[in-house]
Amino acid sequence: MTNSNLVRDFAHLRLSDAEDAGGKGANLGEMIAAGLPVPPGFVLLRDCYRNSMRAGGVTDELNAAHRAAMAQVGNPDRLIEMCEQMQTLVWKGGIADEVRDQVLRAYRALGDNVSVAVRSSATGEDGKDASFAGMNATFTNISGEDDLIEAVQRCWASLFSPRVVTYRASRNFGSDPAMAVVVQQMIASERSGVAFTADPSTGAEDRVVVEAAFGQGEVVVSGSVEPDTYIVSKEHRKILSTRLGYKSFKIVRGADGSDATIDLGEEEATAKVLSDAELLEIVDLALAIEKHHGCAQDTEWAIAGGKTWFVQARPVTTLHHATMPAPETHDVVARGLPAAPGEAAGTVRVLLTPEEGSRLRDGEVLVSQMTNPDWLPTMRRAAALVTDTGGMTCHAAIVARELGVPCIVGARTATTDLKDGMLVTVDGTHGRVLTGDAVAPRRPRRWTVPPARRPPSRPPR
After folding, report:
1. I want to staple 449 with a disulfide (CB 3.0 to 4.6 A). Which of 54, 216, 376, 430 is the partner?
2. pTM of the model
């Protein structure tokens, strides 16, 4: 097993290593220590990034550029330009020879050109309390040494996307950023999803919320499909509710080894993903993780060949305790899953892509087909958010809760039922949209978040 000052096998990591391995890497080590089923892998500690940038001669220029960019978060166009320059510097810095050698040695130990997931893992100040959900890069079904090295560099470059820089500024993080990278053997997921050991929509800590879909879990965490949602009592392991979602497609490993999207017919799209026995096994394993850490956990799981694996775990960063809805004289025009609590009133603006965000006026209700972190620049100007797809545990819902934006997901037909200009009230606590203005005189808190830009998919030519 790999255990060095640069690259370390999961089995050699504990929570005390989170400063260098990031929360994802350290938590994987803790799960292995607790005897939980975790696919094998290793972590590039943050010194891999630091040593590579130093060897490439870009450290001082990159850190100075980052400090300057933090001061430009209110100037989106300038920030985009500065972030592109910083990402170019990361590619220029490259990967140090010693780092490359240790990474490839650890990769070869997994097997011959094994397919892996390569995930960013926030370290130091970035990794302590903030979720960074969905903001830094993740790449799945990476196979081969050259593709692995490129994926690592793409993760490093994602440190300097506009949305990450501004999020860091909003949390007053002032240190020079660095990143660990998790490399984990891929599971050929037949079904996958997330399990929260507290209800993220109500704050109730006496239950586990499980969301599930077919194929790889990215469709759940990205909010690109409406997953099944199961709620299970912790004390009695009783299934309290089951809500079947509409899983319009799945992502699997294609014949060429890369991600392949497969559309699902009506019967499979509406089929129940988990049997009761499978659900309760996931609940038991998630609760074992919670017991090991002593606090509520946000976990990701996958089922392949009849075996359940856990591929990530992190503390739940936000829990809001909901109250019962007050009696209303306003009609309910849409219902969905409560994803981020609060109430807000405004006129509807239906948008289909993040690029249409400029059409939304400050204080309008954003209605879209799906949520993902690319919507952040528009979400922070909206009074509330309603989407057709997604689940209450998707990355965008986590970020919406952290930013204080009321959010309903999985409303299914919101983009057709709600029309531009309608005055509505979004009750994100109870998952309903009401006609008219039914809000008490209060408004949700806002952060300023810049337009998102994905890290370059390839090194600059």
Report:
1. 376
2. 0.82
